[in-house]
Write a structure and sequence with these properties.
Strand content of chain A: 5-15%
Helix content of chain B: 40-55%
Order of helices and strands of chain B: HEHEHEEHEHHHHHHHHHHH
Shape of chain A: globular
Low-confidence stretches of chain A: none
Oligomer: heterodimer
Radius of gyration of chain B: 27 Å
Largest sheet of chain B: 5 strands, parallel
Largest sheet of chain A: 5 strands, parallel
Number of helices of chain A: 12
Helix content of chain A: 40-55%
Distance between the termini of chain B: 64 Å
Number of helices of chain B: 15
Radius of gyration of chain A: 21 Å
Mean pLDDT of chain A: 86
Strand order of the largest sheet of chain A: 2-3-4-1-5
Chain lengths: ~270, ~300
């Protein structure tokens, strides 16, 4: 694992008595939150379960019946508000035999009632040098991937992008085509663009979050080359889209379709 | 056998079940009533079956008590033209239609149940709620839209009281709105009224909103799904059913019934509105309890 020396050092000195009963690992996707969870598990030699997809009243009641200490991982970005309220009880009345470790991207996605009852461990942001160094350690032909650092902020995202690498040029071409032709595209064609994107970990489609980052990058490059006020307006719209996509539990597909129609209008 | 003879046999308590087909025209309410009367007379249990073969292939065990059960098959169309069914005992088929062969083979086993007339529905309602003024019961029949199942269900609430109490109990139920939560409309009617810009229908539906099952986010989703299709069809003359991934009959139905009520600009404004509601909701700009009012007022202001 590169970086995160402070947290790794903290974990190496942790014991079963000093580990907080409820803890939030805060960092972007691919920043190493799961890796840190695994390190805690190995350090304390405890069984560990990811219960993100199994949150129910029955499962929570079962946790109360466990005798041996167990680590539980919950991804707060992938549970509903109702499920967050269900796990509130675990956080309010900590159990002797359960250590709850939450992972989240930002504080804004966390219920204040959970946030206030947990210790917060924030992962450090990665510098460009760290990311390039990561590339040299992981990939043999790492110079080919140096441009990925423009789109990624974490090592995990780099790995994900590397899997797409043969598609990155396709994505960049599509983004350029969108800029050039969406103003005159038919409405039905415009709406079919969403079919190429994955909004919910669907296989064989481009990840939505990666796509909009690449789109933002393409717009920036075009603005540098072309003196076109429309492109600057498009850039503002894409920035707003990226910000709105961070809203907890937002319907990203509808956001994107709304954005596509706005782009169509702007670039007409 | 005709229905009058069957009724006579039931009243005389001399009915014997061989193989009978109860053929109804609009609903199975009356056949089921007769079935329960027969059950009461013969003191046998009713066993609903999914397939005739369950009766034909049944093995008699020493301790099988189901021999005397009345086997009942309910289906829309009966087409098991197995001729030795006529020799079966305790078998009743309740169906709306029979295929031609079955009509021929079993012509002596068919009992036709006519459609319930309005006066029969009234008589039935009056008989169940004796003590309640007929004028009040006529209003109930109107609220339930002469739906015999609904009426039966609503009158069960009154039937348990004795005749002297029924009048006041019924009046209390009416005051408490016990009979008010009935509506034939649903979320799709609401959605259609919006798309056709049918202000009259929409205002009636809006008045009944508490009785209709309209979940605000469900309405948004329905509007969104339909709007996408309408935009693709109305604003792109060359669109085909295949290009937008819908069945061709649905494509033509939408083209005929839902396109043309709004201009291009209005459709686009509606699309922006509907796709932005989720964001406004999640950022606290609007609350869920005003979403329906928000959508209607905005759409009709475009």
């Amino acid at each position: 694992m590169i970086g995160q020396h402070i947290l790794i050092n903290r974990i190496e000195n942790i014991t079963i008595d000093t580990l907080p009963r409820s803890l939030i690992l805060l960092g972007d996707v691919g920043s190493g939150r799961h890796t840190l969870f695994s390190l805690i598990k190995e350090r304390l030699n405890l069984p560990a379960f990811d219960i993100t997809k199994n949150i129910s009243k029955d499962n929570i009641d079962e946790i109360y019946l466990k005798v041996e200490p167990i680590l539980y991982l919950i991804d707060l970005d992938n549970i509903s508000i109702r499920e967050e309220n269900m796990i509130l009880k675990l956080v309010e009345e900590p159990l002797k035999n359960a250590y709850i470790i939450f992972i989240a991207k930002t504080k804004t996605t966390i219920l204040p009632t959970i946030l206030n009852r947990c210790q917060l461990w924030e992962l450090e942001k990665y510098s460009e040098e760290q990311l390039r160094y990561f590339l040299t350690t992981v990939f043999d032909n790492y110079p080919d991937y140096f441009n990925l650092v423009d789109f990624c902020t974490t090592p995990g995202q780099l790995i994900q992008m590397q899997k797409l690498n043969h598609n990155i040029n396709d994505i960049i071409n599509l983004c350029n085509k969108m800029i050039d032709y969406i103003g005159n595209a038919r409405f039905s064609n415009t709406l079919t663009l969403t079919n190429k994107l994955s909004f919910d970990s669907e296989a064989d489609k481009w990840d939505y979050d990666i796509f909009i980052k690449i789109f933002q990058y393409v717009i920036k490059e075009r603005i540098k080359k072309e003196d076109n006020i429309k492109l600057f307006n498009v850039y503002k719209v894409i920035n707003q889209l990226i910000r709105d996509s961070q809203i907890p539990h937002i319907n990203k597909k509808q956001l994107f379709e709304n954005c596509l129609f706005t782009l169509r209008c702007l670039l007409r | 056998m005709d229905i009058k003879k069957l009724k006579q046999l039931i009243e005389d308590k001399s009915i014997k079940i061989g193989f009978m087909i109860f053929k109804y025209s609009d609903n199975d309410f009356l056949p089921m009533q007769y079935l329960h009367e027969i059950k009461g007379i013969l003191n046998n249990e009713i066993r609903f079956i999914d397939n005739i073969k369950e009766v034909l292939n049944s093995t008699n065990f020493f301790f099988d008590d189901s021999e005397n059960d009345i086997n009942v098959l309910c289906c829309d169309t009966f087409s098991d033209n197995i001729s030795n069914l006529v020799n079966q005992n305790n078998l009743i088929v309740i169906c709306k239609k029979l295929d031609k062969e079955c009509e021929n083979i079993f012509k002596n086993n068919i009992i036709e149940f006519p459609k319930l007339e309005d006066w029969q529905i009234k008589d039935y309602v009056y008989s169940l709620a004796e003590g309640v003024p007929e004028k009040e019961l006529d209003k109930l029949i109107s609220i339930c839209n002469k739906n015999i199942y609904r009426l039966d269900k609503e009158l069960k609430k009154i039937k348990i009281f004795n005749e002297q109490e029924r009048k006041y109990t019924y009046a209390k139920f009416v005051d408490d709105g016990i009979f008010d939560d009935l509506s034939e409309h649903n979320i799709f009617d609401f959605c259609n009224a919006i798309f056709k810009k049918d202000v009259q229908s929409l205002s009636k539906l809006y008045a009944e909103l508490n009785k209709i099952d309209v979940e605000p986010l469900g309405l948004v989703k329905l509007l969104y799904d339909n709007l996408k299709v309408i935009i693709s069809i109305q604003l792109d003359p060359n669109t085909t059913a295949e290009s937008i991934g819908i069945a061709s009959n649905r494509f033509w139905a939408i083209k005929k019934n839902n396109c043309g009520f709004y201009t291009k600009e209005q459709l686009l404004l509606m699309f922006y509105l509907v796709t932005d509601i989720d964001r406004k909701l999640k950022t606290g700009q609007i609350s869920i309890d005003i979403i329906i009012d928000y959508i209607i007022t905005h759409i009709f202001s475009f």
